[in-house]
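Bug report

Summary: structure tokens for Peptidyl-tRNA hydrolase differ between web form and batch submission.
Environment: batch mode, default settings.
Steps: 1) Submit the sequence below via batch. 2) Compare with the web form result.

Sequence submitted:
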Amino acid sequence: MNTPWLIVGLGNPGPAYAGNRHNAGFMVVDALARRVGGRFKSHKARADVVEGRLDVPGPEGAGTRVVLAKPRSFMNVSGGPVAALRDFYKVPLDRIVVVHDELDIPYGSIRLKRGGGDNGHNGLRSITGSLGDRGYLRTRFGVGRPPGRMDPAVFVLRDFSATERKELELQVEHAADAVEALIGLGLADAQNAFHGAR
């Protein structure tokens, strides 16, 4: 099958946001881009994309065609670029993977799912609205809850802490592995492999 997988990392564009917890999706897609040996190029869908092939486990196997994308819009209007990329590459809903930060999961944990609500995540809300369906796949990168009474909206726009940064590269690569497993093994087997981890 030559239909690509569309893997979208969520974040906010620009260097000021690069290290934010909210940019975990961008970090994971950057790691996948290194694996395919590609460089992001500007796409008319208002996103930066890398087209390439990933060697994933299972029946999809070596040379699985992927489009890695980082919307150039701000997080809360990610849906337009994602829908435009879906239309351009003719990707069915079940081959769209969105990688995003998740407050309700502890730092260092990854959760995989299909569908569900947006849980207050404006990027997901925008994507669901633009796609007209919530049945896409999600790779959720745990960032944990904010300390004390800090507003979650403030927390996600702060950089990872010094302690978290010691393991951040490892966590990002772990999440990239989870995306590969999701594509290669399917949701149930990938959940079995990664939900017990950590």
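Above is the batch result. After comparison, the two runs are identical; trailing whitespace caused the diff. The helical segments are 24-36, 79-89, 122-131, 152-156, 162-185, 187-194. Strands lie at 5-9, 41-43, 47-54, 64-71, 96-102, 110-114, 137-142.
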